[in-house]
Design goal:
39% of the residues lie in helices and 21% in strands. It contains 17 helices and 24 strands. The strands form eight sheets. Strands 18-19-17-16-22-23-24 form a seven-stranded mixed β-sheet, sandwiched between helices. A five-stranded mixed β-sheet has the order 3-2-1-5-15, with helices on both faces. The longest helix is centred in the last third of the chain and has 31 residues. It starts with 6 loop residues before the first strand and ends with a helix.
């Protein structure tokens, strides 16, 4: 009977939704629940989240999950959380949320990052952190607060990211989970700890005392408090583990273990990841490294907020067409047959901080179907920018595993196979964030000795799409034209800078 079984809870806090799922000891999904999350944009370039509302939404989602699944809270033996990385969630010195959280897609710190680039700070940091500098990094946002909201900066008592904040709401324990904090520019990839030299270089040394202790993804770092139990319906005393950066959670669920398979995540962010052993010097690009769940391994990726979030925003402006309708309209056109291009840079770019989104090549003969096709192509071309760089480093990659909402579109995934020339593998697992978080809880509560053992029990079908050689040749021509357009616009922005006094 279900009431005699035991389960593990995974929570996933993304850019658009908060989700929660219940899983058995084989990481088989029993039930899931989700709620929409609201992004606040009080000024152009701002992306914020009400921290009180986020916790209320989380509690509501958990109550609903328990109600609809009809299991007792006492049957849940462990809890994990997966969430977006970067951004900034602050508590004040009295342990109260300090203003709204700032999300990773926020661009208010653009001038600060540009100034750091001119001063050579990224090159100084990279050997230590293995990170690039981005407007949505905690360090960029902290420096912005220091310069523009100094009183709020002085009131900071604890620096967190999304799943650290939710874990604190559940347990009352402050901690920074390692797979996430390792990609913050606050953490030394060599020493595996905070390095005060980094904050000194960035001009935010005052924040050293506000950094929470680092915990491992499967490390139990707290228990559900009576207060959280009353709000969520969970049982007080249920253990909560550190959790996972959502990119790590997805790679784990996609079955990545070595350098032969890449994982493309398609959501607000375009992320291409590969798992590797050890740090490597003298690489062709400044790849982003992060700690992985397996000792001695790292997740290496290229990323930018340039993926399917562009379609979601545009579709909202057009009246919210169904995903099936969009796919039918795109499939009705010849592959690579249009002169319309779309730059998927609504939330940022990987082609320069100044680059913004645009359609180019539109004429009166073009229809909404052509624009939708251009959005699909633009997102894929942008993923190709990251994939191409990754394949310079990981030459043994033979297949691309794709996760995220677009993986449900056969049209979009075939386009990705045709453009990349790689087999595209689609793991049939719906909620990788929730499942990965539950997997961390299974390891942390001793059901499995490590993540590799836990990973072996996951069973799901994998659909494989192979590239069409004729379409690949056509798309390669259009992809080259897309790159020419990017280069031309980079020249435009360079000339615009020359005019600034």
């Amino acid at each position: 009977m279900r009431h005699h079984d035991t389960y593990w809870l995974g929570i996933d806090c993304g850019g658009t939704y908060l989700k929660a799922g219940l899983y058995d000891s084989q990481c088989r999904e029993l039930a899931t629940e989700k709620r929409a999350l609201h992004t606040l944009s009080p000024r152009p370039g701002y992306a914020e989240r009400d921290m009180h509302q986020l916790w209320q939404t989380c509690a509501e989602t958990l109550r609903s999950l328990l109600s609809h699944s009809e299991i007792r809270a006492s049957q849940i033996k462990g809890i994990g959380i997966s969430a977006q990385g970067k951004g900034l969630f602050l508590l004040d010195k009295e342990d109260r949320p300090l203003g709204n959280a700032i999300l990773s897609s926020d661009r208010r710190a653009l001038e600060i990052v540009q100034r750091w680039q001119q001063d050579g700070i990224p090159e100084k940091l990279y050997p230590h952190t293995r990170q690039t500098l981005w407007t949505g990094h905690p360090v960029s946002l902290l420096r912005w607060l220091k310069e523009h909201q100094p009183e709020r900066y002085r009131q900071t008592g604890c620096v967190m990211m999304a799943h650290d904040y939710l874990r604190w709401c559940l347990t009352g324990v402050k901690a920074a989970e390692e797979t996430n904090i390792s990609e913050s520019n606050l953490y030394s990839m060599v020493s595996r700890r905070y390095d005060p030299q980094l904050t000194q270089w960035l001009g935010i040394g005052e924040m050293d005392v506000a950094l929470a202790p680092i915990v491992g993804p499967a490390e139990i770092c707290g228990e559900i408090t009576p207060q959280a139990a009353a709000l969520t319906g969970l049982t007080a005393g249920t253990p909560v583990v550190g959790g996972l950066f959502d990119v790590v959670s997805t790679a784990l669920c996609a079955g990545l273990q070595d350098e032969h398979t890449a994982n493309a995540v398609m959501g607000t962010w375009a992320v291409t990841s590969v798992i590797t052993d050890g740090l490597r010097q003298n690489e062709p690009h400044p790849y982003v490294y992060g700690r992985y769940v397996t000792p001695g391994q790292y997740i290496v990726h290229e990323a930018s907020p340039t993926s399917s979030g562009n379609l979601e925003w545009l579709n909202a402006q057009w009246g919210n067409l169904s995903f099936d309708d969009i796919n039918q309209q795109v499939a009705s056109l010849p592959k690579a047959g249009s002169e319309v291009f779309f730059l998927p840079f609504l939330y940022g770019s990987n082609a320069g901080l100044e680059m913004t989104s645009a359609f180019y090549g539109m004429q009166a003969l073009h229809t909404r179907a052509h624009l939708l096709q251009a959005v699909y192509e633009g997102v894929v071309f942008n993923h190709m920018t990251h994939l191409s760089r990754m394949r310079e480093r990981f030459s043994e990659v033979k297949a691309l595993r794709v996760t995220g909402g677009p993986a449900r579109s056969a049209v979009w995934m075939q386009m990705l196979a045709d453009v990349s020339g790689l087999n595209v593998e689609l793991p049939r697992i719906d909620e990788t964030g929730c499942a990965g978080a539950a997997l961390a809880a299974l390891v942390g509560t001793g059901v499995y000795p490590d993540f590799r053992s836990a990973q072996q029990v996951m069973r799901y079908a994998v659909q494989t799409l192979t590239p069409d050689p004729a379409a690949h040749a056509a798309y390669q021509r259009k992809y080259q034209q897309y790159q020419f357009l990017i280069e031309a616009l980079q020249g435009f922005h360079a000339r615009m800078k020359e005019q600034i006094p």
